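A quick aside before the break. I want you to see a complete sequence-to-structure record at least once, exactly as it would be stored in a machine-readable document. Don't worry about memorizing anything.
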Amino acid sequence: MTKPVTFIPKSEATARQNLDWFIAHARDQIETFGSDLPFDADIWPLDGSVSTKGSQSNPSIRFANWDSTSSKRYDVSLHPDFKPFAKAYIRYLQSIEPRVITSIRVRIRALQMVEMALLSSGSADPTMINSLVLNRAADISQRKYPKGTTAYYACVDIQRLADFLDDNRLTKVPCNWRNPISNSSIGYDTARGRLGDEFEKRRERMLPTQEVLEAVATAFSRAKEVPDILPSSICVLLLAAPSRLSEAVTLPLDCFVQDANGKDGLYLRWFPAKGGEPMIKHVADTMIGVVREAVERLIHISAPARVIAAWYEKNPEMVYLPDKLKHLRDKQMLSMREVYAILWGVDDSVPESEQYNSVTSFLTNRGIKMDKSSIVHWRHARHDENRAFEAPRVPFTSLQAAILSMLPEGFPVLDRQTGLRYSDALCLLRAEELRERSTTMQCMIVPVSTRLVSNRLTKNGKNEMPTMFERLNIHGADGEVIELRSHQLRHFLNTLLQAAGLSQHDIALASGRANVQQNAAYNHHRSVDAAKQIQAVVGETMKVNLPTALQGKGKYIPILRSEFLASKIQTGHVTDLGHCVHDFSMTPCQKFGHHINCEEHVIQKGNLTHETNIRTSYAEAQHLYHNAKTACENGNTSAKLWLQGHEAVMEKFQQICEILDDPSIEKGALIRLSLPDSPSRIKAAVRTRLPPQPKVVEPTSALKPGAVQPAKTKAPALSMSLVKSRRKQEGA
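That is the input. The structure line, written in tokens, reads:
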């Protein structure tokens, strides 16, 4: 890729002059999309210059207006006054910030909205864009996309366009425009809460049902042929870690990562499609066996295609021929049977007439001329008689050129983003290998596109292929058709991670997501389910008084879940260390955020997330304790109080860790901290309001042996009438 040439506007020039210079700069000095790009055309063929990430079709860019894009019924290009700027903007931005084809089309969508808003003001001149025009464009995006996140991200691109116009002095008046849609509205769940009929409908639409998940497992166990092995194995990979289909179909052959000792689990080498950094994804222990089998199946079915890909990488100008057909390379003219053998293999079970028709159709579609000088006789399969027909001869060079022209765009590189080559791809097929009524080509390969897999999971548009569920006779309980959208599996795993209590950063990392805020759109965990999680841990039947899990000062003793279930807790919430059972309906928690010092906090042994946080906090407490101790030894007198506080916290964490490490205590046991000497503002206020108690003076003289100690006298109790009379006297 050539180095991008930066456009530098002139401060003394007008907006129109800078705009003309910018268009000329993008047209003549930038080679993005190819040096021979037809800049003035309304459709730009990309010819492999942009990563399609799992798409098999040859992408192109269409500079049509919004109505044409949304309706797809007619094609009206952008306004002639606006179109040159739009083309220059797309080409320039791609040169400095390369994106996949889907992201480029999102940029065009923003331009279409701005053009529509600009035309409503009576002009299509880009120099007339201002904040009012951009506000109208934002309003268009919200009307076009009333729900979901599309409107927000459309306005993100509109803001990017506004900043570009301001930075390069391309408008008469600076826009100074910002996205009016708050990022807090990203995701359906964030703004509306995870309750109600509307949420349930979206949840049902975005998540696979248990019946569908079981159907995937059944399909994987029954799959014996390539049209079933490919989609079922890819579904297993998508269930191993939250991923996109485009990422799964572009996995490398060596996708497994195993630690040197072989004891720390299995990982998958992964390349996120939308901005995430290359990573490895951990495979759950329960999934290791099935994931290994899925990868082995994909390696097996793609092996013949990789052999062909390796041949074309080494011999880009020679058609691939198997060993038994290599002698044909020395022939100038080929018979129809020989052409059929090169294309679809040697198969004597196929009647010669069918071979003739298949070869004729192939050659005619590619404009290859045939020599029809010879006549041969063949026996008709139905009528059992000899019939004469023309047996043309085909030039080997013409056939070879036609086959080589069928190589995929960008060959030998399958994925421009990662540099993955076809010969190293995990998912690769021979041409026509998935077609129901077609024979697999023996000399050509095709990448596994997302559409190819999706068509085997659900009916899309004009897709007439049977899904793998139909092929394997898998139906719902009532005989209904089973269908699955691959992205539902990503939503499903993200929801599981949300329910498991992972941090938002960890969920985004596991999903290969660059923006943490996008987690909300994938979170379909019900609020009521979160409440049930707490209830499942702390128990359903409750008493007012919780049994103490601590007996004796400084010693933590766990209680079993069965004992804890006999208690009653009014409310509860999840914390980073366990669960707090304080009743917030009565009073606020006096130690909110200081759970280690709270006697209403419960820890469950066996919860990996909470145990990890406890051990991390223990290590931090040790570190702080040693720092304070060092400060005291160096003569810092104010560090003594810090030392005492850190020591108390460290001891509590240490005793909890001892319980967690004790093998005699079963997993699931609940631990509650009891801190009789813990400070409390309420208790301190009660002590302040108590009346002063009379002091009792102890006798200092020693009693003689055998003497009787005098009884201690108490102050006489005052009646309320006596107290009132004394107060009147004092007032007088």
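Two observations worth writing down. Residues 288-314 form the longest helix (27 residues). The longest strand covers residues 266-270. We'll return to this after the break.
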